[in-house]
Design a protein that fits this description.
The chain is of the alpha+beta class and about 800 residues long. A seven-stranded mixed sheet has the order 26-29-30-34-33-32-31, with helices on both faces. Strands 5-4-3-6-9 form a five-stranded antiparallel sheet, with no helix packed on it.
């Protein structure tokens, strides 16, 4: 949308270009560029001639003292005969380049130094007058740029309009915005035409058959026009707006569209068949040759204007070639309508036929502006093309256009969202500037947007208008005022967050995979025929034909991901997925959606300081134990087969309060082969629902002791079948409260250890918070621990 400020000034008082551009930009109208069509006179200053004296050495020269608003008055030699004291004149100072390309220099003229030039209209590029200087209005402010007091050519602002602001696609719409931002009175051009002759209704009738597609259709008749070129002022305005001049009739319809935002179309009245113009849906396969000469095949979704012979125009998009205005046209039918935006948009998009009219209809126009536009166009046609206007507007209505409903606005919410302290009265005044009528109703404002603002529908729209007109830069930077209270996460959400944080903290990377899988994956996981996880929920319309079932476990997802990484030579993997699986229930019921987390860890290669590869089983077990420790859920490990896809001799479970919550182990060789896993790998399967159901105590904190610790290491011979976890549990029970930690730090079997036995080394740490332990106390406790190990497990100290 290109707006010439000289044209805009006829509708509203226009401020300086820079101030206007800045304020419009901050109010939401993006300015793509500023184009000046005349000479650049911004460096020329307004001067005041304080005195004029005759040049001492030249009869035709004058010596003038000129105040340019900065410093001492300047001595300037001038040769114009009309220069006089008291005048306001344009002054080019030393160093300024004039539009013709010459640069002003400090020079000596007949022995007198001249410090600038008092300019004529020709020297400023404003005309051919050069016999005298250009004398400005006496009210021109001294020292201001000449562009502030004199319009040289015109300035055109190129706007980028948002799709929701169809009202801005006209001079009237931009003028309303300028008035809202800067104040002033809105001025409309003359509208009502003089009417004479036979009434329009005696010649033509209008019928709206597609009432949903056309809300209002208005038509006027202008008789006796003479088609010809447009006057220069009209062609110049269209050119400034980016349109070409065609002829006086077409140009008038385009001018009124640019002025008022209402698209118009002129038909050759004598070419229309019958007495009725109809607005209807196109018939399937109906043909129309549009103004661009193309034959269009129409569809029932298209809206057309038709006479008795068929379609004569695509409603809101383009007219038809068979009814267009031509050189011999004398009688016109002016069309002005309000079409449904979506109907126009669909037709224009389907046909790839976008026009200035469709641009405006798609963005919604004023539903009440049709008669006004026909009046304005008819008046201009009489002035520029002759003829007479038939009395009356022929009009037909369809379904009413959606009217903006009354909106209830809470002033307190406005201030809370904007961070302002505006009073309700100030909000009412700000809304009035954008033609929104608002009145107090208790604590609320009842607001009625104007019909030409289809974008104002909810309170947030009005809050945005208040912010725009008040000025975003006038909103103070304040912290939001609110009473903040702590947020309590639902137990399941807290469990999920804790599980994710623990696994990420252990160095694992989270995956997110697709929930649909291939059912044949169950065979690769070695699931038995009677395993409930083989019963899947099938997807009716899968994205991929082979992935047509919802997953019942997550192990397959991480194994598929591992296969992809291994194929790309990435062998050190520590990954996990946390998500839902889908377990079928009875027919007709939705599946259950339990939560699982599955982690996969592959064997790490020995580092520089490592002597041997760490068994992958123990890495996985460490991750699982860390997870349960982070959740403050003390667990007990039990070795044994627990999943068909895990190695039966290297797997086990972790239980909390007697309930199994984790299954883990090395990957079964057959499963590894099916998924092409070529490195040692282990899986950890976490039952999130089981974890969430446990009502265990949260973490407990204790005082850090300032007294020294006492460390005792015990190497105990035990049967190979004795679980180390059971031994640690027995140590903790016998040691009492002084024991702060107990752990296994060595395992040995071989030379010096009897067959069937293993040597486990335990490190016991003792410490009290109230005093230092004595050697006798620690020795007594250690003896009690050793006796319990001997009695319960047949253990012997080495």
């Amino acid at each position: 949308m290109r707006v010439a400020l000289g044209w805009l000034a006829e509708f509203v008082d226009v401020p300086a270009v820079d101030a206007l551009a800045e304020r419009l930009t901050t109010a939401g109208i993006e300015i793509e560029g500023i184009e000046r069509t005349g000479p650049d006179l911004s460096a020329i200053r307004v001067g005041h001639v304080l005195a004029r004296e005759k040049h001492p050495d030249a009869d035709k020269l004058s010596l003038c003292r000129v105040d340019v608003g900065d410093g001492e008055p300047l001595e300037i030699v001038c040769g114009a005969p009309n220069v006089a004291a008291g005048q306001k004149v344009p002054v080019a100072l030393v160093g300024v380049e004039l539009p013709g390309g010459s640069r002003i220099k400090k020079s000596k003229i007949r022995g007198v130094v001249s410090n600038g030039m008092i300019c004529s209209a020709r020297e400023l590029g404003l005309g051919d007058e050069h016999d005298g200087i250009l004398v400005l209005d006496a009210s021109a402010p001294i020292g201001k740029p000449l562009t502030d007091v004199l319009r040289a050519g015109d300035v055109v602002l190129d706007f980028e309009l948002t799709p929701n602001r169809g009202d801005w696609a006209s001079m009237l719409g931009i003028a309303r915005e300028v008035r809202a931002l800067f104040g002033g009175e809105l001025r409309l051009p003359p509208l009502a035409p003089a009417e004479s002759g036979e009434p329009a209704a005696s010649r033509i009738a209008v019928a709206v058959e597609d009432r949903a597609g056309c809300h209002r259709y208005a038509a006027r008749i202008v008789r006796g026009v003479r088609i010809g070129p447009s006057p220069p002022w009209l062609a110049a305005r269209l050119e400034a707006a980016g349109m070409r001049s065609v002829n006086n009739v077409v140009d008038v319809t385009n001018l009124v569209m640019l002025e008022l935002g209402q698209p118009l179309h002129a038909f050759d009245l004598d070419r229309l068949k019958g007495r009725t113009v109809r607005v209807r849906a196109a018939r399937a396969g109906e043909m129309l040759r549009t103004l661009d000469g193309q034959a269009r095949v129409l569809e029932p979704s298209d809206l057309v204007i038709a006479d008795d012979s068929g379609a004569i125009a695509l409603a809101g998009v383009m007219g038809g070639a068979d009814s267009e205005v031509h050189a011999g046209t004398t009688n016109l039918l002016l069309e002005s309508a309000h079409f449904h935006p979506s109907r126009v948009r669909k037709t224009a998009r389907r046909l790839g036929l976008h026009s200035e009219a469709s641009y405006r209809f798609e963005r919604s126009i004023d539903p009440d502006g049709q008669a006004r536009a026909t009046d304005r166009a008819a008046r201009l046609l009489v002035e520029l093309a002759g003829g007479s206007v038939a009395p009356g507007v022929v009009e037909a209505l369809g379904e009413p256009a959606l009217r903006c409903a009354e909106i209830a606005l809470d002033p307190a919410r406005v201030n809370r969202l904007l961070g302002t302290t505006l009073s309700p009265a100030e909000m009412v005044a700000l809304l009035a500037r954008v033609d929104v009528a608002a009145e107090r109703d208790g604590a609320l404002l009842r607001c009625r947007p104007p019909r030409f603002r289809a974008d104002l529908a909810i309170p947030a729209d009005l809050i945005e208008e208040i912010a725009r007109i008040h000025g975003y830069d006038a909103i103070p930077a304040t912290l939001p005022g609110a009473q903040l209270s702590g947020i309590t996460l639902p137990p399941r959400r807290a469990t999920l967050d804790a599980v994710r944080a623990s696994l990420v903290g252990a160095g694992l990377t989270e995956l997110i995979t697709f929930t649909c899988v291939d059912a044949s994956e169950h065979d690769a996981l070695r699931l038995p025929a009677d395993d409930p996880r083989r019963a899947c929920v099938r997807v009716v319309n899968p994205i991929h034909a082979s992935q047509d079932t919802l997953r019942t476990q997550l192990a397959g997802a991480v194994l598929r991901s591992a296969r992809g990484n291994l194929a790309r030579q990435i062998s050190a993997l520590r990954i996990f997925e946390l998500g839902r699986v889908f377990t079928p229930t009875r027919p007709g019921e939705l599946p259950r959606e339990p939560l699982q987390a599955v982690a996969l860890i592959t064997a790490s290669e020995p580092g520089v300081w490592d002597h041997a590869e760490t068994p992958v089983f123990f890495e996985a077990k460490g991750v699982a134990e860390r997870l349960l420790a982070d959740l403050a859920k003390p667990a007990v490990f039990a070795a044994g087969e627990c999943e068909p896809f895990l190695h039966p001799a290297a797997s086990g479970t972790l239980s909390v309060a007697g309930r199994t919550v984790v299954r883990l182990g090395e990957l079964h060789p057959a499963c590894a082969a099916a998924f092409e896993i070529t490195v040692a790998a282990a899986l950890v399967v976490v039952d999130i629902d089981a974890l969430d159901a446990l009502k265990t105590a949260g973490p407990r904190y204790r005082e850090v002791s300032k007294h020294p610790r006492v460390v005792r290491d015990l190497a105990v011979l035990l049967g190979r079948e004795v679980p180390a976890g059971d031994v640690l549990e027995a140590i903790r029970k016998q040691a009492g409260g002084a024991l702060t930690s107990a752990s296994v730090f060595d395992r040995y079997e071989g030379k010096g250890v009897p067959d069937g036995k293993v040597s486990l080394a335990f490190r016991l740490v003792f410490q009290r918070t109230d005093r230092t332990l004595t050697e006798q106390e620690v020795a007594k406790t250690t003896e009690r621990v050793v006796a319990a190990l001997r009695q319960n497990f047949g253990g012997e100290l080495r």
